[in-house]
């Protein structure tokens, strides 16, 4: 069987590229993410009652990598990038139907102009097409005693330090969002490097909220070197 699916809404997020996006939701709770519903789904009736739920499941398409195919075995970053598991034992983006599933916090629903959901902590690229929204039902879905396979608990966090130059870059940008410094800390603490990379001399860059955040990592400490903000 083949199916045709409709995009019901589009994600707007501070993540302008894949690199640096946390590998699961809730790891960077400062990320303000919105889901703007599209016609004909952007009518308040479609979300009536949803405001009573604190969290929602989003089904979406890994649209940026959807055409890159898939393999039966993948190398999860949590296993160091070498050990392989089956694609269906992983949350890898390269999978047969390029479908993603994220549990995110629902902060508010705005129905003044169409329907926009205010979300927190989503692990989604800006522009991600969403196929469905479902409320999270704790008594059915919360399983605190469940086994987590190779993903046993949250990943270790790196310490993050800022060079004065980076703080000054943000201070000089009149449009700095209030949440951006915390988001930079949260994103970098996740260690965005590919699993096999450990080069203290290397300078990395992440596109975040239209800024280029430049940093290096040595001895499990991230140093924020500079932040190139958008030209006025
Ligand atoms: N929570 C979801 C799941 O389990 O299906 C996504 C997990 S996946 C490992 C998370 C990664 O997907 C992010 O770190 C980011 O690199 C990537 N990603 C997020 N949005 C994407 C998109 N629209 N297209 C391609 N990759 C995306």
Short structural summary:
With 232 residues, the chain is mainly beta. The protein has helices spanning 138-141, 164-172, 180-189, and strands at 9-12, 32-37, 55-61, 73-74, 85-86, 99-110, 116-120, 129-135, 159-162, 204-208, 211-218, 221-228.
Describe the structure.
With 232 residues, the chain is mainly beta. The protein folds into 2 domains: 9-141, YaeB-like (Elongation Factor Tu (Ef-tu), domain 3), CATH 2.40.30; 159-228, RelE-like (YaeB-like fold). The chain has 3 helices and 12 strands, in the order ββββββββαβααβββ. A hairpin with a 5-residue loop joins strand 6 and strand 7. It is globular, with a radius of gyration of 19 Å. The model has no long low-confidence stretch (mean pLDDT 95). Bound molecules: S-adenosylmethionine.
Total number of beta strands: 12
* Class of secondary structure makeup: mainly beta
Enter the CATH topology name of the largest domain. Answer: Elongation Factor Tu (Ef-tu), domain 3
Cα radius of gyration in angstroms:
19 Å
CATH architecture of the largest domain: Beta Barrel
Overall, the morphology is: globular
Number of domains: 2
Average pLDDT number: 95
Fill in the keyword field for this structure.
6-stranded antiparallel β-barrel; 2 domains; single chain; 3 helices; 232 residues; binds S-adenosylmethionine; mainly beta; Elongation Factor Tu (Ef-tu), domain 3; 4-stranded mixed beta sheet; YaeB-like fold; globular; 12 strands
């Amino acid at each position: 069987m083949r199916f045709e699916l409709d995009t019901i809404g589009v994600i707007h997020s501070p993540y302008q590229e894949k690199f640096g996006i946390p590998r699961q939701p809730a790891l960077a709770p400062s990320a303000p993410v919105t889901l703007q519903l599209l016609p004909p789904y952007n009518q308040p009736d479609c979300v009536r009652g949803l405001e009573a739920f604190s969290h929602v499941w989003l089904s979406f398409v890994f649209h940026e990598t959807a055409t890159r195919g898939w393999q039966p075995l993948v190398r999860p970053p949590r296993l160091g990038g070498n050990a392989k598991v089956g694609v269906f034992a992983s949350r890898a983006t390269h999978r047969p139907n390029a479908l993603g599933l994220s549990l995110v916090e629902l902060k508010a629903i705005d129905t003044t102009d169409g329907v926009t959901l205010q979300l927190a902590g989503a692990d989604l690229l800006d522009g991600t097409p969403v196929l469905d929204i479902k409320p999270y039902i704790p008594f059915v879905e919360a399983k605190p005693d469940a086994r987590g396979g190779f993903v046993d608990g949250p990943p270790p966090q790196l310490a993050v330090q800022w060079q004065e130059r980076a703080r000054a870059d943000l201070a000089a940008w009149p449009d700095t969002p209030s949440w951006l410094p915390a988001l930079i800390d949260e994103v970098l603490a996740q260690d965005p490097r590919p699993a096999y990379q450990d080069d203290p001399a290397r300078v990395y860059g992440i596109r975040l909220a239209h800024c280029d955040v430049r940093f290096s990592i040595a001895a499990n400490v991230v140093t924020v070197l500079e932040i190139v903000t958008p030209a006025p």
